[in-house]
Amino acid sequence: MKFKIYKYIAGFFSIAILTTSCVDNEDLVQVDPNNDAVDSFWKSDQDALEGLNAAYGSLLTDGTYMRSTPLLLDLKGDDCRSNSPWDAMYNVGRFNSNVSNAAIYGWAYETYYQGIYRANQVLTNVPGINFENNELKNRILGQAYFLRGLFLFHAVNMFKNVPVPTEIAAIYPQKTQAEGWAQVIADFKKAAELLPTAYTNVTGLDAGQKGRATKGAALGYLGKAYLFTKDFPNARDTFKQVIDLGVYSLMSNYRDNFTDTNENNAESLFEVQFSRDAGGVDLGWGGAPASGWGKTSARAITYAPRAFGWTDVQPTWTLYNEYQLEKTTANTIDPRLDATMFYNKPGGMQLYGQNFATFYAGNPGDLNDLFCRKYQNSDGNYANEFDWRSGINERLLRYADILLMYAECLNETGNTAGAYTYIQMVRGRVGLPNLATVKPNMTQAQMRDQIGHERFLEFPLEGHRFDDIRRWGWLEDTAKLAWLKSRDVEFNSYAAGREYFPIPQLEMDNNPGTSQNSGY
User: Fold this and answer.
1) If both were cysteines, with which of 113, 167, 269, 436 could 397 make a disulfide (CB 3.0 to 4.6 Å apart)?
2) Distance between CA atoms of 57 and 289, rounded to whole angstroms?
3) What's the rounded mean pLDDT across residues 132-137?
4) What percentage of the chain exceeds 90 in pLDDT?
5) CA angle 295, 298, 302 (to 5 degrees)
6) CA distances from 206 to 166, 199, 509 (A)
7) Burial class (CB within 10 angstroms; exposed 0-12, middle 13-18, buried 19+) of 90
8) Same domain membership, residue 485 and residue 408
9) Are residues 422 and 487 located together in one domain of the fold?
10) Whether 414 and 347 share a structural domain
């Protein structure tokens, strides 16, 4: 069962770091005399798996996918906006995060390095454990490489020049972004070598467990790392390896990717496992794990429609309008619109057992506004999101993304004609007409813009749009930046360098020699 992945050790990772001016690094790591876990642990395959599960645990807290990381990934894109009364959240999308207030982005930074530390514990200690099942050992190490790569991927992608820890130490010097990406690539390569395509046909403590990293997930993220560093030939070949695995396909119902039904489906390469039924009822805000923590997400309440949650995030009208540009072959609106947002739809739309038009009839502002539907428990089983306990898994990487990234790589390596096939697979799922018929013989530049449009409609509110904007160089292109400003007024406050978050002040204080990102 997927819930087994949630078991991890409280207190095991406690270390006290004492610094003076005349000690070696090894003298800085002191074992808590009241906690003998470090001495007694790392003896068995069960210890190894539990240590690995602790690294997975860092995906579940507020700094990562319980709440903060989706916000940081989403809010800078032109697909969503925020009018949150909380300035730390409101300012993310306006490129105005405050160096003196590390709320949200600082929590994410801290948790990424907590996850890296936990993965490094596994990679340091597990090789010395004698396993009866060596394949299990390799899978545990492969997952640790994957998780370290994933946490570092986020750190490098969002904070640019960051430490790159590959071993246990007290101080990790700041590295260049290129050095960070090189380590991300190395970790995902190693993970892909060690991981299985699935856990259904393996033996050992992890047999049959869903939610664990697989070869496909490692290859998918390896391809993304190549793509983000503009290594299009390697990205192309890596994405093709994912396709050739033959284990992934698109779900016929697009919305199955964003609810608590049909989780870990054939379209999902990797998702963070949340559940109302696992753990306690407390929220995992961060710090040392507590026995009362649940394994639920606060994304739903944060993004929820007015009166059903906090409404801190909303879709843009630009996104709504772009869904209107092309009808399906049945002459209907793209079904991804209704799967993505709530609006005053002619003929009616239901949310949390209520009719949209009736529920908001007394408030014209809300009646004529747009609200998030992705990742909402809104199909009638729950009255609202105010219990803070969403069990919907966060889908980090979908097969649709692999197909469109592969198409992009084909276009960038001179095979624009070949890109049509893979774009149409994604379009065809929602009934859009054949792109080769409606827009034949596009140039490479035209195809780039088309892929931008296709990705905009396929992945809104999934944390991909701003990553695309930044890596495509649109912020440095005067015409593209003006276009973005016309689509989303939040881009009016963009300044060079603000495409990255600031290095948290605590990191600046505690890690000598750390330089702040430009623009702050």
Assistant:
1) 269
2) 9
3) 96
4) 88
5) 175
6) 25, 7, 41
7) middle
8) yes
9) yes
10) no
Is the per-residue pLDDT at 379 higher than 50? yes
* Domain shared by 481 and 410, yes or no: yes
464 and 416 share a domain?
Answer: yes
> Does residue 425 sit in the same domain as residue 480?
yes
Domain identity same for 359 and 434:
no
Q: Is 183 left (phi over 0), alpha (psi -120 to 50) or beta?
A: alpha
pLDDT score at 32: 52
Q: Quick one: 485 and 407 in the same domain?
A: yes
Strand 80-81 vs strand 314-315: parallel, antiparallel, or unpaired?
A: antiparallel
For 448-489, what is each residue's pLDDT tens digit? 999 999 999 999 999 999 999 999 999 999 999 999 999 999
Q: Residue 16 pLDDT > 60, yes or no?
A: no
Per-residue pLDDT of 199-213, as tens digits, reads: 999 999 999 999 999
Number of domains in the chain: 2
Residue with tokens 């695309």: 468
Question: For residue 279, what pLDDT is reported?
Answer: 85
Residue pair 506/491 in contact (Cβ under 8 Å)? The answer is no
Rg (CA), the chain: 23
Whether residue 454 contacts residue 426, with contact meaning beta carbons closer than 8 Å, is answered with yes
Question: Is residue 425 in some structural domain?
Answer: yes
Dihedral class, residue 353 (left if φ above 0, else alpha if ψ from -120 to 50, else beta): left
| pLDDT attached to residue 75 | 98
Range of the domain at 369: 327-374
Structural tokens at position 203: 């033996």
Q: Does some domain include residue 322?
A: no
Tell me what pLDDT residue 19 has.
31
